[in-house]
Design brief:
This protein is mainly β and about 150 residues long. It contains two helices and twelve strands. The chain has two domains: about 55 residues, no CATH class; about 90 residues, OB fold (Dihydrolipoamide Acetyltransferase, E2P) (Beta Barrel). A hairpin with a 2-residue loop joins strand 8 and strand 9.
Length: about 150
């Protein structure tokens, strides 16, 4: 993949307002995440297929689109791990979009190295957006929830 092809991909991401784009071609994996301003190009693993693959991930709307004029607090991942929205499989999630939350209330769990870490709300308010689905991996600083501060 040459520089012009990479520029074309970046222009398509901007033009179509994609939050995330991932592609693998000829042993090169390109992942672009607009929300975190992260641009990563990494070599593909030997086990990965060499056929072109493109995946576009669905992401919740940005906090600004949720409700203009209302202060929002964005809860971010403090660690790398796997996010779980409920205490155990099949049980009710800790919170949903629209749930009223209080400071210190558990929003989700992030499993890191077989340890379950409760992620608590940092303020009182209402859940305006949930950015990560149950069982999805998260990186340090990834947005988890947006809370309308009350």
């Amino acid at each position: 993949m040459n520089l012009d092809a990479l520029k074309d991909i970046l222009n398509l991401v901007r033009e179509h307002e994609l939050a995330e784009f991932e592609m693998e071609h000829d042993g090169l994996k390109v992942r672009i995440r607009k929300a975190g301003r992260e641009y990563v190009v990494t070599p593909a693993t030997a086990a990965a297929p060499l056929a072109p693959v493109a995946t576009i991930a669905a992401v919740a709307p940005p906090p600004a689109a949720v409700d203009a004029g209302v202060p929002l607090a964005v809860i971010k991942a403090p660690i790398v791990g796997t996010l779980y929205r409920s205490a155990e499989p099949g049980s009710k999630p800790f919170v949903e979009v629209g749930s009223i939350v209080k400071k210190g209330q558990v929003l989700c769990i992030i499993e890191a190295m077989k340890l379950m870490n409760e992620i608590e709300c940092e303020c009182n308010g209402e859940i305006a957006a949930a950015y990560v689905d149950n069982g999805q991996p998260v990186q340090f600083g990834d947005r988890l929830f947006a809370v309308k501060v009350s």
